[in-house]
Amino acid sequence: MSDISFQQEVAKRRTFAIISHPDAGKTTITEKLILLGQLIQVAGTVKGKKNDRAATSDWMSLEKERGISVTSSVMQFPYKGRIVNLLDTPGHEDFSEDTYRTLTAVDSALMIIDGAKGVEDRTIKLMNVCRLRDTPILGFVNKMDRDIRDPIELLDEVESVLGIAAAPINWPIGMGRDFKGVYNMYTDTIHVFQPGKGSVVAEDIRIDGLESDAARTLLDDEYENFLEEIELVRGASHFFDREAYLAGKQTPVFFGTALSNFGVREMLDGFVEWSPEPLDRPTDTREVSAKEDTFSGFVFKIQANMDPKHRDRIAFMRICSGTYTKGMKMRHVRLGKDVKIVDAVSFLAGDRELVEEAVSGDIIGLHNHGTIQIGDTFSSGENFKFTGIPHFAPELFRRIRLKDPMKAKQLQKGLQQLSEEGSTQVFMPQRNSDLIVGAVGNLQFEVVSYRLKDEYKVEAIYEPINVFTARWVDCDDAKKFEEFKRKCAENLAIDGGGHLTYLAPTRVNLALTEERHPEVRFRSTREH
Ligand code: GDP
């Protein structure tokens, strides 16, 4: 690829993820986006319950049973001269860790709000993660075909609860049974709603000008009220400012209904026009520009056995600079080794496809035989490490025991791999030979025992254990640290990555210990 065409290719990329509360409509919107963009590549599955592609994975049958989405996936589609990479995030809150890390691999996010419900818990949590990196966020208020809450109140809620300025781009005309369409306040155009066109890309029926006769006819009795409402909205809301959006300070908001595939196209048009190109990324030595031609990337997710025919694991890598070409050599920085990659994959309709070429902003899958961990950097030989890929302290803990004590080795190996993948976290207390599994949500425990049985042939049982939370500990003062380690030996453990961790039995114990050892840092997140 020539320099100029490389730069042009990078400039086309738009890499994003959806943040929303379960049931707000993420899956439905994803389907419509793919419909609009003529899907070219699918990695993983959109969602088990609705998509046969889930059949490509055996352990995902758990996911199907529960009707939830356990795994992230990556979809790539072209739209209006851009190449859009959509990174799916697990919808179930038990898998929030995976979701958080996926958010480190994108350049912007789409926030979906259920118009009937407003801003919900999980959106708040995810928004807080986006805020750590000032990720630009575009908003979509969904389910306009239902009776939703007052749109002005919804925007107020976005501003007060999420702490981000809201700039409505279009405004709904009616709702529920009386939903007539949306009015774009910037182009002075009405897009007319046509029900029953959910599964197709319907023609865009427009009325130019709110002052036009056609607009009066459409709005009928509601015409005067709507004019007043628009006056009010214009006065009370923010004017769209792209710089503020790119800085993560303002969210442009669209209204629509994903189920009827209405308003999604307008939102996608705004998205490809305004959202950022692949951003520059910090490393421990310098900032890497997406337009540098030397290759680099980092792994944000590892997923097992997406295809039962291939029992290895796939490491998902976000390319941060340069071009991946088939057969190229790259430096696995943590191991200090150069590796030749001939078989990076993308996925076409559920089948594995080898990628010939991919650039900054794209996601590729590397075959992982146990040497790749979440957070690993790959480069063209330079020794740097991308920063900011978080690991969160688990909130739930169980002791894990074997039914058959002869299988201790397999159990260790299984837990080690599952923890490298980020599916769970494992802690080995210093005072005994227990194995403690930590999770962010309860369902994670089920997934771990299912996969231990399915993939490692180990039957394990959980027992309750008195741990409230975990904190990664470190200290600049070696002497003080030794003293801390001696005094707190009872509560110290080593995690799957070899890091010293304090396991606190209660909130009070944690507070007291922190107070007694002010020189020691107790961290609730750690970087990979
Ligand atoms: P997710 O959990 O966020 O992925 O949400 P889904 O896309 O699975 O949607 C949850 C439910 O809301 C499903 O029953 C959808 O059919 C429904 N839904 C999604 N979008 C709309 C919409 O625009 N209008 C209505 N009435 N229902 C919707």
TrEMBL record:
Record function comment: Increases the formation of ribosomal termination complexes and stimulates activities of RF-1 and RF-2. It binds guanine nucleotides and has strong preference for UGA stop codons. It may interact directly with the ribosome. The stimulation of RF-1 and RF-2 is significantly reduced by GTP and GDP, but not by GMP.
Gene this protein is translated from: prfC
HAMAP family the UniProt entry points to: Rel_fac_3
Name of the protein: Peptide chain release factor 3
Intracellular or extracellular location(s): Cytoplasm
Chain ranges of the Tr-type G domain: 11-279
Family: Belongs to the TRAFAC class translation factor GTPase superfamily. Classic translation factor GTPase family. PrfC subfamily.
One GO molecular-function entry: guanosine tetraphosphate binding
Keywords assigned: Cytoplasm, GTP-binding, Nucleotide-binding, Protein biosynthesis
Record-level GO cellular component terms: cytosol
One Pfam family matching this protein: RF3_C
Top-level taxon: Bacteria
Binding sites annotated in the UniProt record for GTP: 20-27, 88-92, 142-145
Single biological process term from Gene Ontology: regulation of translational termination
InterPro entries recorded: EF-G-like_DII (IPR053905), EFG_III/V (IPR035647), G_TR_CS (IPR031157), P-loop_NTPase (IPR027417), PrfC (IPR004548), RF3_C (IPR032090), RF3_dom_3_sf (IPR038467), RF3_GTP-bd (IPR041732)
NCBIfam families: prfC, PRK00741.1, small_GTP
